[in-house]
Amino acid sequence: MIVNFLKYSIQLPVYIFSFIFPRKKNIWIFGDRFGKRYDDNSKFLYEYISQNEPEIKAIWITDKNEIVSRLRKDGNLCYKRWSLLGILYSLRSKVGIVTFSRYDINSLLMGSAIWFNLHHGTTIKKDFYNKTLKVRIINFLIKYIFRFRSTYYDYMICSNKNPIFIESFKKNFKILENKFILSGLPRNDFFYINGHIKKGNSSFKKKILYAPTFRVLEREEKVDLFYKYSWDTAKISNFLYESNLELFIRPHPHLKIPSKLFKEINLFKNIKISDPLKLSPQEELMETDFLITDYSGIYIDFLHLKRPIIMAPFDIDNFEKREGLNYNYSKVTSNYKISNWIELINFNFDDLKFDKYHKRIFDYFDVYQDGNNSRRTFQKINKILH
Length: 386
Hints:
CATH topology of the largest domain: Rossmann fold
Distance between the termini: 41 Å
Oligomer: single chain
CATH architecture of the largest domain: 3-Layer(aba) Sandwich
Number of strands: 14
Strand order of the largest sheet: 3-2-1-4-5-6-7
Helix content: 25-40%
Number of helices: 14
Strand content: 15-25%
Shape: globular
């Protein structure tokens, strides 16, 4: 704590200095994942504005040379966080748009800018925060002194305004209810073309994607979501072969796959580990015919594609006890459920449909289902500025 206090104290004069610069409403700064990634809601809104709103100077800020090269090659504005133009634009921008954290962009230089958090998904999980005295002291200092390190934002983008969602985000991000902008998540525009859902996987074999969520309290532990729940690689592979299916496993970056599973999967052609560096979540969902997940908000995005979802809450009792859910799980998830991997083999995938239960959940979590979320988000932000 002392080290962080000293570090933030050294940075504080820079933050205060940034307030003296006049800011221009037509300069908007974007970023994602602490400047390390080009993806998610920030990316899709940035691309929409760059291509469709010439009066806005949309600028992506990053720490990665590769991202700078790629975006500039496409004719977009992108600068490194501490480059000369990165600094100048950060000091002059009126709008900061992030997906994950204030530190997605150069928060030290964004003093009097207006902050918009697009967030990285609609979730059914409770947000876990450490409540120790040490953390409470740090949070107090950040809120009132070192605000450039805070999780507080002026506005939050959302896809619905159901009371449970709003109360959760009000509590965690200290945002007033009238500061939520109902516009839908820009990243889900990827699934549409001219207001219609894009066609998906056209390969002979249909694709199943297993994408479990992150366990905050088990970050450093080896979480076994396979062998502990009757995973049998040979049996599952045989089932997939007979059903003309492929299974792709997309683990959360903070979840470790058992090394034994890696070795076994190499012996079979119809079970694979997805590479998140090759396909973004949206791109992989587009190629997916059936989704399996547990408590991840990825299934809410997948509802846009109107394809079947199987819920696999293997450890639900432990998960609810340790981390918690904001909703009654059975009421906000698909009726297709498995409690272990053997039950998956008993499914006839030809019978699985996007049914009325899927549609009810979709309508509850996503007000807008038209592929115009980026345009709507831009218009609502622009209206706030003027």
